[in-house]
Design brief:
The chain has about 525 residues and is of the alpha+beta class. Helix 1 (about 20-35) crosses helix 2 and helix 3 (about 55-70) runs parallel beside helix 5 (about 90-100). The longest helix has 14 residues, at about 135-145. The termini are far apart. The relative contact order is 0.08.
Length: about 525
């Protein structure tokens, strides 16, 4: 004000408004002593005056004081104050505090007195630390009920509530109990909730490994079904809803909180064209539209919001067609027949299929092809270094990894990696154990390989020996480490990484609903 050529620098007397005399006295004293006493009573006035007069040291000291004395009762007020005085770091830290301690903050008077713009800024954040979306909904309801004028902002507030990630049973309960939910706007939001494409809040979900087992017990006709989830962080297992179909050798793919199951072999030898979808938010299976062609050992993959079914086995010959499922319309479409078929040179039974960078890669023994859904064109790429069958595939940091399986030569601990940019395969560190028929999933940037079996050797009297080992791969160090064991020994099972509600995975295990699954399976077998 006095050193930059402003009009005040040329005046003999300057009136300073908005600064209390005692606060101004402290700033003058600071200019001579470099000391100032900051307290709860004077910090806001002192910061405002220091900001007005450009006393940077006092301004920064006041910001640190507020940051160190922040709690759930005053963090909202501190944030608004910091925003008004352009204290960017304090503004950020206070918002971080609000989001981190939201479960306590939303019950305080300061939160309930917020304007609608600041409220929606908070509840729109991906980073709110809540146990579930229901807590954000309850916070919004408290704010709306605080005063009659708040209800005028109902639609603007509800726009940021991620209804699709709330439990349907909870929505039914609150619809009947809260008067604000009787409006036509609310009913529209509720009916459109499934169409919302909001992703869940980071704090409400965890990434788990889903294992799906469906095998004929003792070579008999009755399949054994089991589906479980494993959290690598807590190393906790949870039993989930049984598979709804009495089939094996189906295809599986994951899309957000959903798992799609397609095709398979029924106990009577017939093939399935059925498609089922598992919703991890409510632990239930729902029947979707059938595929156009019945097939087992189908390669299933999600890409660009669609589910693709690639190849498979018709019971007599290999299926070389590609179908695409649209979840929005619940319909399947055969891709263009003239050029949309899997190359005839590739054996399409039990393929390994994976999506990467807008393309679908089809791997069979050693041959590898890539498929462009936009043009329905297939292109052959570099072959794998180790020919193998029944091997899992995954992607990590723009590369494709294959491991284990039944190698035509070599060992089941061989791991190789494909780089699409160079069209080259390279060998990686071998796993500690051999893995014939393992499951593979990627969680938090690490590859997990689960179980499998040691492959046969000329000196062995048995085909293979099951083991329960779980290994984890670090791409940064190109190394494997054993990180645990599975509850039981199995092989030739399906494995996926799945995002699910954190509190759902922490709940007690669901009992396998055998009667419902049997009923659905019997109906499915009859239909086919």
């Amino acid at each position: 004000m006095f050193t930059t050529g402003m009009v005040e620098s040329r005046q003999d007397k300057v009136n300073i408004f908005g600064v209390e005399p005692q606060i101004f006295d402290k700033l003058v004293s600071f200019a001579y002593t470099s000391k100032v006493v900051i307290s709860t009573e004077n910090v806001q006035a002192l910061l405002a005056a220091a900001d007005l007069l450009g006393v940077t040291a006092v301004h920064m000291a006041c910001c640190k004081y507020l940051e160190h004395h922040m709690d759930e009762k005053n963090c909202v007020g501190i944030h608004c104050f910091a925003e008004a005085h352009s204290c960017k770091m304090l503004e950020k830290h206070s918002m971080d505090y609000i989001l981190e301690h939201f479960s306590l903050v939303y019950q305080q008077k300061e939160f309930l007195s917020l304007g609608v713009d600041k409220l929606t800024e908070i509840i729109a954040s991906d980073d709110i630390n809540v146990t579930d979306e229901e807590m954000v909904f309850e916070a919004a309801m408290l704010w709306l009920e605080q005063c009659p004028t708040n209800r005028q902002s109902f639609e603007k507030v509800m726009e940021h509530i991620r209804l699709a990630h709330m439990r349907p049973s909870y929505l039914l309960e609150v619809t009947a109990s809260l008067g604000v939910l009787e409006s036509q706007a609310c009913h529209r939001f509720l009916s459109d909730s499934e169409a919302k494409e909001h992703r869940p809040r980071w704090s409400t979900v965890c990434e788990v490994i889903l294992t799906v087992v469906a095998e004929r017990v003792g070579g008999g006709d009755k399949p054994r079904h089991r589906i479980e989830s494993f959290d690598p962080l807590t190393r906790r297992w949870k039993t989930l809803a049984c598979l709804p179909i009495a089939a094996i050798d189906y295809g599986l793919a994951v899309s957000g909180p959903f798992v799609y199951l397609a095709g398979g072999d029924f106990p009577d030898g017939s093939l399935s064209s059925e498609v089922w979808r598992y919703d991890s938010s409510c632990d239930t299976w729902s029947k979707m539209a059938h595929m156009n062609e019945a097939r087992s050992d189908v390669g299933l993959v999600t890409l660009g919001g669609y589910v693709f079914a690639v190849g498979g086995w018709s019971g007599k010959t290999y299926v070389n067609s590609v179908e695409r499922y649209d979840p929005k319309t619940n319909t399947w479409q055969l891709m263009e027949a003239s050029i949309g078929r899997v190359p005839i040179s590739a054996k399409c039974n039990n393929p390994a299929v994976v999506a990467l960078d807008g393309l679908i890669y089809f791997l069979d023994e050693c041959q590898v092809y890539k498929y462009d859904p936009k043009t329905s064109k297939w292109t052959e790429v570099a072959s794998m270094l180790v020919p193998r069958r029944r091997f899992p595939v995954c992607t990590l940091t723009g590369k494709i990894y294959v491991l284990g399986g039944l190698p035509l030569y070599g060992f089941a601990d061989d791991v190789e990696c494909y780089n699409p940019e160079t069209d080259e395969w390279t060998m990686c560190a071998s796993t500690n154990m051999e893995h014939y028929g393992p499951g593979v999933a990627v969680v938090d940037g690490k590859i997990y390989v689960l179980e499998g079996a040691e492959c046969p050797r000329p000196t062995h009297d048995v085909w293979y020996t099951l083991h329960r080992t779980i290994e984890r791969y670090s791409e940064a160090t190109d190394s494997w480490e054993i990180v645990g064991e599975m509850p039981t020994g199995i092989n030739l099972f399906s494995c996926l990484s799945l995002t699910m509600r954190k509190n759902a995975h922490q709940e007690e295990s669901t009992e396998c609903r055998g009667q419902k699954a049997t009923s659905a399976s019997t109906e499915a077998a009859t239909d086919s």
